[in-house]
Amino acid sequence: MARPWRVAIIGGGITGLAAAVRLRDRAPAGTEITVYEQSGRLGGKLRTGELAGGPVEFGAESFLMRDPAGAASGAVALVHRLGLAERIVHPTVGQAALVIDGGLRPVPGGTLVGVPGDLAQVAAVARPAAAADRDEGRPLLGPDDDIAVGALVRARLGDQVVDRLVDPMLGGVYAGRADDLSLVATMPALARTARVEHTLVGAVRAAQAAAPRAPGAPVFGTLVGGLSTLVDAAATQSGATIRRNAAVRELHRTPTGWRLTVGPTRLPDGSAPRAGVEPSAVEVDAVVLAVPARPAARLLADAVPAAAAAVGGLDYASVALLTMALPEPELPGLSGLLVPATEGLLIKAATFFTTKWGHLRRPDGLALVRASVGRYGDEAALQLTDDDLVATVHRELSKALGTPLPAPVDRHVQRWGGALPQYPPGHLGRVATARAELRAAHPTLALAGAGYDGVGIPVCVRSGETAAEEIITALGGSAA
């Protein structure tokens, strides 16, 4: 009788946990799945905490309900698989604002991540250079071209559209700048139509037409009780052995699979490991590598140096999320606001949790407001103390809203170092090169996660599931 498969998943974020669930569902019965998480907590950037006696997200806030083809997103499918569908709720307020010239203006409709398909709709926020978006008799992009989003939009519609619309919207997702981020990686639908259309406005309209949304259909969802319920359910129902505070320090090929060198980052009592505590060696048949690009590159350096080189150069932005509990503040009826870098403020975005999400509204009148601080290449602000960050954010929000906010009765500062991958032009080609190297030489080792496939819970879930299916196929099973 053949022994059961042994699969290691390195990384206990939602990508790794989604891979574990998919392996449990589709790998042969008895497959031994072990998740190695360097920290003491599963979930990665999904972390539900408590503030002023109520739940609040200290990381990712929500997930997209639909994928680009209009089907249920990977996050929604996983929520249903885990029996959590009845917990899904949607925003009760969807309108957000931009801070422009010190005041609030509604985020205009009809754009694709800020790139307009109707120039008239954005006139109150930015003056498009419409004459530049002329038909030159050829598609905007060649078949294999990639370009920075900012470079394309500036050339076609001018600086204001980038600085006041596209940059703050991309910054809210990636904490990066439009002038640095790949069009193909961050706006794939627009990249596809730009290979056919001759104008940027035409490309936006074509992308919107290719992915129509039913009127009134919710775009985002979250879970009552917080997104950590998704993490906990995935860990439990995967049936995986979970090893927290377990750092995989080395990864080597063996004649039959892989050898992991695993060392503790913390002992059971929470203390640091003593000198002389030796790491252990673990033998497995296959590995899903669901960690950020730089630690992945370190682990790949010995076995697959070409793949390590392809992914090792990816950089990340650091951010801080500051959540304040404010007693009966005067807040606008908005889900939140975005702040262009040209406004010169520390904050780049804010969410009015208890306005946006009806299930979080409180009878005591406390409002939960979260602000995001930190842009790629400008992380000096993150060196401020927690108290100074909160004081600055409180002052800037009061100014932007045009009314003094009450002093917070409680607050929390969550610092996410190296949280958000920055995708320069050509990123997806480099990832494809790395994966081609792995499939050719080491098909039982798969890469998964935001560093390769994109940010957002649905993308990470699909990335983990795809990696699990590749492992099943490589080991001689069926992922059907």
Explained architecture:
By secondary structure, this protein is α+β, with helices and mostly antiparallel strands. 32% of the residues lie in helices and 23% in strands. It contains 15 helices and 22 strands. The protein has helices at residues 14-26, 74-81, 149-157, 159-174, 183-186, 188-194, 200-210, 228-238, 293-300, 305-312, 353-356, 386-401, 427-441, 450-453, 457-474; strands spanning 6-10, 32-36, 48-51, 54-57, 63-64, 88-89, 96-100, 103-106, 111-112, 115-116, 220-223, 241-243, 246-253, 258-264, 280-284, 286-289, 315-327, 336-338, 347-352, 366-373, 410-422, 445-447. The strands form 6 sheets. The protein has a 7-stranded mixed β-sheet with strand order 8-7-18-19-20-17-21. A hairpin with a 2-residue loop joins strand 7 and strand 8 (103-106). Helix 1 packs parallel to helix 8 (228-238). The radius of gyration is 23 Å and the shape is globular. The model has no long low-confidence stretch (mean pLDDT 93).
Brief rundown of the structure:
With 480 residues, this protein is an alpha+beta fold. It has helices spanning 14-26, 74-81, 149-157, 159-174, 183-186, 188-194, 200-210, 228-238, 293-300, 305-312, 353-356, 386-401, 427-441, 450-453, 457-474, and strands spanning 6-10, 32-36, 48-51, 54-57, 63-64, 88-89, 96-100, 103-106, 111-112, 115-116, 220-223, 241-243, 246-253, 258-264, 280-284, 286-289, 315-327, 336-338, 347-352, 366-373, 410-422, 445-447. Helices cover 32% and strands 23% of the residues.
